[in-house]
Amino acid sequence: MSSSQTHRTVDAIWRMESAKLIAGLTRMVRDVGLAEDLAQDALVIALDRWPEIGIPDNPGAWLMTTAKRRALDLLRRNKVRDQKYTEIAHQMDLYTEDDVDQALDGEIGDDLLRMIFMTCHPVLSQDARVALTLRLLCGLTTDEIARSFLAAESTIAQRIVRAKRTLSAEKVPFEVPVGKELQDRLSAVLEVIYLMFNEGYSATSGDQWIRPILCQEALRLGRVLAAMAPQEAEVHGLVALMEMQSSRFRTRVNVKGEPVLLMDQNRAQWDQLLIRRGLAALERSRKLGRTLGPYSLQAAITACHAQAPSTAETDWIRISALYEALSRVMPSPIVELNRAVAISMAFGPAFGLQIVDELNAEPALKGYHLLPSVRGDLLVKLKRYEEARVEFERAAAMTRNERERTLLLNRAAECEFE
């Protein structure tokens, strides 16, 4: 394997393992900023050594063992200056590779939930929590996060640094809280798990359209939360949403790894067990007798798709109404964009295009590639192919995901032959 191929493989492994690695190290050193630094050190060592020695059979265990050795070295160097680190060092034994393999499947998995509660502490602002989550749990770069926020990269970098310093200065505990404290932090934790799942479902950047392992971890954490807080309707709503969305994974890409859009997916291959689990979770949310929140409403929308035999037989009028309700509880230009798609399916593309054109003036969507993508799709349905081609090319220039860029450029090319 060439050096460049090894580097690409290491990058893929890092995206899969970094969250667990940082969570496990945070449990050890009780400092999320230091844990990230140690994890990054292990990555640098891997980039240097793996091209020579080959990629280990268990790369996650190798990275954890390497990072932990770095931690011990650091603690030993600092023991005179900082007694706290010495005490931590005495509690730490080096993992064998088998130990780490078991930990990655067990205890460290629970550490992810502890880290989410830690990074969702109210000492951090909402923007800081989201940025830190995308960095630590989803493995996004500062540049990628900045694009998600439509903000300057320097702004996001400062926000992340301040957030880590605040958690350290305030000595925020690495634990899952109980009672009222858990309730107070629950909505922020749900948002973090939702973001984590979405990044896996449609990757912001890179060579892959989806990151199933990230989605599976988000779903696992959601199920754990549902068991911890069974009377919280929105926890069940989020689980329902993730279960039903996960049912489509095997149809979201073709054999070449290329994206397959919802309208073109083979619904017979959707995972019926996950759909049934999702519908049951949605029913548990409804039975709690509260007004449906944003996650339960999105789950209800997904249920309309999951229960429809085909795109043509989907209840688009109901979906439009659910998006209208969602826009009231969670006002967002992205919700409006999705509502435009539903309205176009229910009442015709001209009606959807009218909403999309109004969204063109929305500052928050200025760099959002799905706006021109949706507009291009509606223009195709109206047989305005030249305008559609321009929109697809504009969307392709905005996205950072290579698979999505190829899809959009192919759609632009198709417009030339219509």
UniProtKB/TrEMBL annotation:
Residues covered by the RNA polymerase sigma-70 region domain: 21-79
Protein name: RNA polymerase sigma factor
Ranges for domain DUF6596: 185-285
Domain RNA polymerase sigma factor 70 region 4 type: 115-167
SUPFAM superfamilies: Sigma2 domain of RNA polymerase sigma factors (SSF88946), Sigma3 and sigma4 domains of RNA polymerase sigma factors (SSF88659)
